[in-house]
Amino acid sequence: MMRTMKTSIMLLAWAYLGLATISMTVSATPNDLSRERQATKKPITVTIDAFQFQPDKIVIKRGQSVIFINTDEVPHTVTPDKNGHFVPSGIIKGGEQYEVSFESIGVQDYSCDFHPSMHGRVIVK
Ligand SMILES: [Cu+2]
Predict the structure, then answer these.
(1) What is residue 58's predicted lDDT score, i.e. its pLDDT?
(2) Do 64 and 107 sit in the same domain of this protein?
(3) CA of 71 to the centre of ligand 1 (A)
(4) For the segment 9-33, what is each residue's pLDDT rounded down to a tens digit?
(5) How far away, in angstroms, is 23 Cα from ligand 1 center?
(6) Which domain holds residue 26?
(7) Which of 6, 16, 36, 92 is 20 to 30 A off residue 100, Cα-Cα?
(8) Ligand 1 mean position to 89 CA, how many Å?
(9) Do 55 and 19 share a structural domain?
(10) pLDDT for residue 105 is more than 70
């Protein structure tokens, strides 16, 4: 009986040490690196103003998202062109916004369904 208890205490201590080693390894990961990774993935804002995407050309990283904010009073859309590989917004009413992440690398153009003069480009690196 005593021997069993002793064994289980030793096993517990061993497991605890193992866990301590794991958590030490985790905390040894450079915090700066993970912080930088998050910072570069922060969403980028494109404003839709006066029937224009502003800026109409942005460069982002793969997996980064873009928030399209419609500051006009009329509805617009952010619809991928043939080279665009992201989820279309559907109608974005005046004052509303749409956030979408870009998961494919490459040059991606988009336009507004309602206003053929409205174009924009996202370059995903
Ligand atoms: Cu429009």
Answers:
(1) 98
(2) yes
(3) 11
(4) 444 444 444 444 444 444 444 555 5
(5) 52
(6) 2-34
(7) 36
(8) 12
(9) no
(10) yes
Q: What separation in Å is there between the alpha carbon of 69 and the centre of ligand 1?
A: 12
CATH number of the structural domain spanning residue 45: 2.60.40.420
| pLDDT (tens digit per residue) in 33-82 | 555 455 568 999 999 999 999 999 999 999 999 999 999 999 999 999 99
Contact between 80 and 113 under an 8 Å Cβ cutoff? The reply is no
DSSP lists the bridge partners of residue 122 as 58, 108
Cα distances from 120 to residues 14, 23, 47, in angstroms, run 59, 46, 11
| CA 111 to ligand 1 center in whole angstroms | 8
Place of tokens 């029937």: 51
Residue that is written with structure tokens 């509303």 in the block: 96
